[in-house]
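In the design runs reported in the main text, the only information available to the sequence generator was the tokenized backbone. The following block is the verbatim input for one such run; it is reproduced so that readers can re-run the procedure and compare outputs position by position.
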């Protein structure tokens, strides 16, 4: 498949190619050995990444929702 560079240095990728990447809006661009390489990238807001790490840590420690409620009740007693 061919792509043409416009006068604004933009390239439109063929629809058949992009149909395989429907869930992606961003691509990392690299140059390697005279070739342009596009790698799809999923963008996640920074706070979502941090929240996911906290959830993973809580799960790894075996903490359940009741443990959190008990801790809150204990802290409020003081």
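Verbatim output:
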């Amino acid at each position: 498949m061919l792509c043409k560079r416009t006068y604004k240095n933009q390239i439109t990728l063929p629809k058949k190619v992009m149909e395989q990447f429907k869930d992606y809006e961003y691509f990392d661009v690299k140059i390697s050995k005279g070739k342009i390489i596009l790698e799809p990238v999923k963008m996640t807001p920074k706070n979502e990444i941090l929240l996911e790490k906290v959830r993973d840590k809580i799960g790894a420690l075996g903490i359940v929702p009741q443990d959190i409620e008990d801790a809150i009740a204990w802290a409020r007693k003081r």
